[in-house]
Amino acid sequence: MRKKDCFYLGKIAKKFSFKGEVLVYLDTDEPESYTELESMFVEINGHLVPFFVEKSCIHKERFLRVLFEDIASEEDADELIGREVYLPLNMLPKLEGNKFYYHEVVGFKAIDQEKGAFGTIEKISDNGVQALFEISYNEATILVPLIDEFIVKVDRENQEILFNTPPGLIDLYL
User: Fold this and answer.
1) What is the pLDDT of residues 21-68, one digit of tens each?
2) pLDDT of amino acid 126
3) With a threshold of 0.85, does the pTM exceed it?
4) Residues 79-109: pLDDT tens digits?
5) Torsion sign, CA atoms 123, 88, 32, 94
6) Largest CA distance in the chain
7) Cα–Cα distance between 25 and 48 in angstroms, integer?
């Protein structure tokens, strides 16, 4: 499995028991959607390695308590701590309306209600306090905060997002 064909589910945060159980921090708003997984991919040395789930349950809202097959001791579990966990993209629930996954809108045309087309979405940066659309226009990169009020319509069919940006925001970059 290639990383580009997967989505980031979370990170193995710590051991839970002497039997090899681990707690996976889930980076999702709906942790309960992932309690019935048969397997997940763990990134080891840059490769996604499948691990089969023997049992799992939600632990303190944001964690998934997992016992993997063939991980039967604390020592085995130690090797997994801090590793990222992925699932195939086809396991993502479909979103509708103006809700979208970050990877889904890369390559979409950005259109402002007042200014018209102003570039192509290159990526969404979520490294700071506020997630930002990084939109390429000629030689410039336009940064638009990912705020629900700025997004008028997500048009999946035409691969466009219609924005209502504050006056002057786009002009700052041109």
Assistant:
1) 999 999 888 888 899 999 999 999 999 999 999 999 999 989 999 999
2) 85
3) no
4) 999 999 999 999 988 888 998 888 889 999 9
5) positive
6) 61
7) 18
Cα separation, 107 vs 89, in Å, equals 17
Per residue, the 3-state secondary structure of the chain, as one string, reads: CCHHHEEEEEEEEEECCCCCCEEEEECCCCHHHHCCCCEEEEEECCEEEEEEEEEEEEECCCEEEEEECCCCCHHHHHCCCCCEEEEEHHHCCCCCCCCCCHHHHCCCEEEECCCEEEEEEEEEECCCCCCEEEEEECCEEEEEECCHHHEEEEECCCCEEEECCCCCCHHHHC
**110 near 117, Cβ under 8 Å?**
yes
CA distance 80 to 22: 8
Residue position matching structure tokens 């979208």: 100
Name the residue type at position 117: A
* Sign of CA pseudo-dihedral 85, 148, 150, 157: positive
- The total number of residues shown for the chain amounts to 174
Cα 142 from Cα 98, distance rounded (Å): 21
**Token pair belonging to 134:** 């990084």
Q: What domains are there in the chain, each with its CATH number? A: 3-91 (2.40.30.60), 102-173 (2.30.30.240)
